[in-house]
């Protein structure tokens, strides 16, 4: 079996995988990082969104061997110890979640949005979330959370 | 997903040789279609040849009166390219509405075109802009490229290296997306260069096609009104849970008029 080394949340992780092992399986089953979720498994729901070499990607739709040598950040790598990442804090403050299943993907997606567009309009936030499906909240508080995080960032 | 042998090609030549030397080779670009296909066990290649690490297949450049886009250029990079925005903003807009942001961060123009998915966006632009598909073996004219459902003129071992788009005077793409997948239920790309107008339709048929009645009418009078009475023949159009052939035929006209309007 091929051996891959993927830097996950700053730590190089080397494992033997099958060629068909998906990145999301690598994270969840090999590393035990179960914050990254599998919702639809068909590249639509976005529960598996992670940061791959600085951009957002759906980890259920790539092979671990494909990203050998890459750097991945998952939801577990966002907080600074006990201190939540500003986006996590904004989701908490604005009640941007109910059941929480989509939340890791939402947060990872939102973090990338503010990276490419630090001051998104509400419409831009909603369009961005096309790749992340939430069945509880109706999106309103998620959109609010992202807008609040952007505003806090602009003030800082 | 069935298991397979995996190869990371270092060059187009290597990929071409690899994919034809194995039992059933499959080339992977961004993997946004291939991986879901493998997961559903709709394909069972013996070998997957990944083009992801071939650096010289990526990038956008202007060459004379054309925009040349490397096959492995991601949708996000076409969407945000200043060169594309300045020369063919309609093409940048098309790329910016494929799938969702995360899919656009992985999916590539070459993969989209080579796959000839009936609901993919790029094929409409290839036909409307009269692009040339550049492969490792030859140059293929847009009108000769799409052959049918997931079928193109590409031969075994032939890989797209770039797509060359002549710069039009005006061009725009309008699509009616499936609300879940953002694939085109119908998408229409209209391009005008001088008095020559081309209309590329995707989503409606087995593969992208030109709407020549609309092209003739728009060449004489470039306005939405010029085509409002031109009915798309629903014969042979796709009919599925998302839309009937009759509805798709209707959408071709609506999307075409909107695309023309957007050009004005």
How do the helices and strands line up, and which of them pair or pack?
The complex is a heterodimer of chains A (156) and B (264).
Chain A: E1 3-8, E2 11-16, H1 23-30, E3 49-52, E4 55-58, E5 71-73, H2 86-93, H3 103-116, H4 122-128, H5 140-155
Parallel strand pairs in A: 1-5
Antiparallel strand pairs in A: 1-2, 3-4, 3-5
Chain B: E1 5-8, H1 12-21, E2 25-28, H2 34-39, E3 47-50, E4 60-63, E5 66-70, H3 75-80, H4 82-87, H5 89-95, H6 101-104, H7 109-115, H8 122-128, E6 132-135, E7 139-141, H9 142-145, E8 146-148, E9 151-152, E10 160-166, E11 170-177, E12 184-193, E13 196-202, E14 209-210, H10 212-220, H11 245-263
Written account of the structure:
The complex is a heterodimer of chains A (156) and B (264). By secondary structure, chain A is an alpha+beta fold. Chain A has 2 domains: 3-77, Ubiquitin-like (UB roll) (Roll), CATH 3.10.20; 86-155, DNA polymerase, domain 1. Helix content of chain A is 34%, strand content 15%. A 5-stranded mixed β-sheet of chain A has the order 2-1-5-3-4, with helices on both faces. In chain A, a hairpin with a 2-residue loop joins strand 3 and strand 4. The longest helix of chain A has 16 residues, at 140-155. Chain A is globular. Chain B is of the alpha+beta class and 264 residues long. Chain B has helices at 12-21, 34-39, 75-80, 82-87, 89-95, 101-104, 109-115, 122-128, 142-145, 212-220, 245-263, and strands spanning 5-8, 25-28, 47-50, 60-63, 66-70, 132-135, 139-141, 146-148, 151-152, 160-166, 170-177, 184-193, 196-202, 209-210. In chain B, the strands form 4 sheets. Chain B has a 5-stranded antiparallel β-sheet with strand order 4-5-10-6-7. A 4-stranded antiparallel β-sheet of chain B has the order 11-12-13-14, with helices on both faces. A 3-stranded parallel β-sheet of chain B has the order 1-3-2, covered by helices on one side. The termini of chain B are far apart. The chains are: A alpha+beta (156), B alpha+beta (264). The A-B interface holds A 2, 18-20, 22, 41-44, 46, 49, 52, 55-58, 61-63, 65-66, 109, 112-113, 128, 130-132 and B 1-6, 8, 28, 31-32, 35-36, 38-39, 48, 50, 52, 76, 99-103, 105-106, 180-182.
């Amino acid at each position: 079996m091929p051996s891959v080394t993927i830097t996950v949340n700053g730590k190089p992780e080397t494992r033997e995988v099958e060629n068909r092992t998906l990145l999301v399986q690598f994270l969840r089953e090999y590393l035990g990082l179960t914050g990254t979720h599998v919702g639809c498994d068909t590249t639509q729901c976005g529960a598996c969104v992670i940061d791959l070499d600085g951009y957002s990607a759906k980890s259920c739709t790539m092979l671990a061997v494909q990203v050998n040598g890459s750097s991945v950040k998952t939801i577990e790598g966002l907080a600074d110890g006990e201190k939540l990442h500003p986006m996590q804090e904004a989701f908490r403050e604005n009640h941007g979640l109910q059941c929480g299943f989509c939340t890791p993907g939402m947060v990872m997606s939102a973090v990338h949005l503010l990276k490419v567009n630090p001051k998104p309009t509400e419409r831009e936030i909603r369009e961005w979330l096309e790749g992340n499906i939430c069945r509880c909240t109706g999106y309103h508080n998620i959109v609010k959370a992202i807008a609040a995080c952007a505003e806090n960032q602009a003030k800082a | 997903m069935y298991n397979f042998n995996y190869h990371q090609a270092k060059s187009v030549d290597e990929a071409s040789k690899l994919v034809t030397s194995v039992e059933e080779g499959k080339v992977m670009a961004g993997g946004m279609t291939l991986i879901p296909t493998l997961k559903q066990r709709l394909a069972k290649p013996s070998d997957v040849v990944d083009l992801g690490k071939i650096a010289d297949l990526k990038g956008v450049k202007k060459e004379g009166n054309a925009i040349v886009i490397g096959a492995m250029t991601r949708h996000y990079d076409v969407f945000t390219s200043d060169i594309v925005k300045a020369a063919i903003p309609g093409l940048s807009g098309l790329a910016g509405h494929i799938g969702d942001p995360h899919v656009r961060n992985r999916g590539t123009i070459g993969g989209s075109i080579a796959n000839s998915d009936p609901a993919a966006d790029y094929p409409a632009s290839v036909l409307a802009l009269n692009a040339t598909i550049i492969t490792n073996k030859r140059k293929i004219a847009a009108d000769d490229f799409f052959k049918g459902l997931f079928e193109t003129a590409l031969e075994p071992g032939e890989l797209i290296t770039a797509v060359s788009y002549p710069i039009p005077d005006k061009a725009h793409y309008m699509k009616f997306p499936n609300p879940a997948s953002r694939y085109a239920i119908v998408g229409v790309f209209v391009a005008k260069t001088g008095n020559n107008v081309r209309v590329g339709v995707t989503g409606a048929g087995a593969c992208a096609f030109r709407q020549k009645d609309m092209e003739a009418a728009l060449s004489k009078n470039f306005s939405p009104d010029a085509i409002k009475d031109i009915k798309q023949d629903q014969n042979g159009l796709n009919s599925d849970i998302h839309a009937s052939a009759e509805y798709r035929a209707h959408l071709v006209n609506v999307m075409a008029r909107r695309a023309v309007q957007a050009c004005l």
